[in-house]
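Moderator note: this is an archived Q&A kept for reference. The question asked for a predicted structure of one protein chain; the sequence and the answer are reproduced below.
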Amino acid sequence: MAIFHFVGCPQKEQGMIITIQMEKGRNDDTKRAAAAAFTQAAIDTLGAKSQWVNILFEDYTKENWAIDGRLQLDRHGPGPITLGNKE
């Protein structure tokens, strides 16, 4: 699961920050692909220039994330996340 936030920065060059909050465990290649895809989406839909787009990844461990009142650790166990990882 990931949560996406978009914050437009009141700068002369219309910079923006896209924050992706997700469970820890996705590899660097997956994050590279996500950064490229979100940057392209901002260009296509918001008219941004690529140099204006900042992508921040916030990774959370299973013991620091709860859904429906239950820790992800309790819901899915201690194993590593594989969802979204590209081999």
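Archived answer notes: The mean pLDDT is 84.
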